[in-house]
Design goal:
Jelly Rolls, Trefoil (Acidic Fibroblast Growth Factor, subunit A), eight-stranded antiparallel sheet, 9 helices, 21 strands, 29% helix, flat
Length: 414
């Protein structure tokens, strides 16, 4: 499973059409369920996630008033303007519900009769405006003569102004590489590290034919005509140059091509980004000119700032605990002379709480020992904001041990 699947658990943002894409695009759902299925083995709800892999079919023999539903879910919220339904067995009537959180639904398209009398056909239902969407339900009733409801595929029509990461198609021993921005410079870096930074260096968005870096609101453009170096430039200034330096399209070969500047494609060579001949770049063994555009939630720099603030508070608390623990350890030799029962009870109570807290972290650390992509990313996030979770857990355990030792010494003296 790819890095993007683990960390963002999302899907390809652009599907590539012969002329390239930079606007509205169809997006597949990640999961599906249905209130009725002819057979769980061959006609389950998830058969409608990908057209051509089979189809979902209801159990059949439905009454005219019986309602049957098919629902699709997304791992990451998307902004959608419509839905494309590829019917295997069209209903007499249907409506569409949408949800921003996956739990609360509202009507996105009212009840409507079948647009055709055929059993199988495609139709696109447009919403009354762009909707933030995490889940969708197709509600069906009034079966046609064939008696079933069925879907070959269901896809969202995304608005095209969503955020995405640009994952390089090139191979690297350090894992997947993502396009990142620093100031006005572009380069590739490990996707794990880019995400962990929390500063949005790896988040971009199409604005017409321009690709904007969300955090800086600058656009990707050829900034040096002599070397064809690609970097970031003010979006308006780049567009007003009228030379196509900031116009891009994603081709069927997953190349980011400059449609107004001949046959040039965005290419990464040793981490540096240039515009090179699309055909030459594809043949070169030391470069990468293909990109997977993977949708991500909107970049929230405030959330990263909050996390860093909380991390600094945790670091201060850990430092104070280190100091307190050192003081207690220095006092251990003299504790045998203490006989205060209240102090004994207090130490015992604190030790038990510390033990429980230490134990509650054990599951997290067991899971963290698994070397899978998502947890590696989590550890990198901790490191980037200055949190030593392993050290904090060890400190809690050591504090618990010392407190228990202190309690035991006092109890023995009593």
């Amino acid at each position: 499973m790819s890095f993007a699947s683990f960390v963002y658990a999302t899907f390809l943002l652009f599907l590539g059409t012969p002329g390239g894409v930079w606007c509205q695009t169809y997006v597949s759902f990640d999961g599906a369920s249905a209130s009725s299925a002819y057979s769980k083995d061959g006609f389950a709800a998830d058969q409608a996630l990908t057209t051509g892999s089979g189809y979902w079919c209801s159990s059949g023999s439905h009454s005219a008033s019986q309602v049957v539903t098919w629902g699709g879910t997304l791992n990451a919220r998307r902004k959608a303007v419509g839905v494309k339904l590829n019917w295997a067995y069209g209903p007499g009537e249907f409506k569409v519900l949408s949800s921003i959180d996956g739990g609360n639904f509202e009507e996105a398209a009212r009840w409507r009769p079948a647009s055709r009398s055929d059993a199988s056909y495609e139709e696109t239902i447009m919403f009354d405006g762009a909707r933030d969407l995490k889940a969708l339900i197709v509600v069906m009733r009034s079966p046609m003569p064939w008696g079933y409801f069925g879907l070959n595929g269901v896809k969202l029509l995304a608005s095209g102004d969503e955020s995405f990461m640009m994952i390089s198609g090139g191979e690297s021993i350090s894992g997947e590489q993502c396009l990142t921005a620093s100031g006005s410079e572009l380069s590739t870096a490990a996707c794990f590290d880019a995400i962990a930074s929390g500063d949005g260096r790896d988040v971009f968005r199409f604005q017409g034919q321009q690709i904007a870096h969300v955090a800086s609101n600058s656009c990707i453009a050829v900034v040096d005509g002599n070397s064809n170096r690609v970097g970031l430039q003010d979006c308006q200034a780049a567009a007003q140059a009228y030379d196509g330096r900031s116009a891009w399209e994603l081709t069927q070969r997953s190349q980011l091509r400059m449609p107004l500047m001949g046959n040039l494609c965005m290419t990464a060579i040793a981490g540096n980004i240039i515009a090179a001949d699309c055909d030459d770049a594809a043949k070169s063994s030391n470069s990468s000119d293909t990109y997977i555009l993977t949708a991500v939630p909107d970049s929230d720099l405030d959330a990263a700032s909050t996390a860093k603030t909380a991390a600094s508070l945790l670091a201060a608390a850990v430092e104070r605990q280190h100091s307190a623990l050192a003081s207690l350890q220095a006092l251990l030799p003299s504790l045998s002379s203490c006989t205060l029962q209240a102090f004994i009870a207090n130490v015992s109570s604190v030790a038990k709480r510390a033990t429980r807290q230490s134990g509650s972290g054990s599951t997290v650390m067991k899971v963290a020992s698994q070397e899978d992509a998502a947890l590696i990313a989590v550890r990198k996030i901790y490191a980037s904001i200055g949190v030593d979770m392993l050290g904090a857990k060890h400190l809690i355990s050591e504090s618990s041990r010392v407190l228990q030792s202190a309690g035991a010494q006092i109890a023995e003296a009593a």
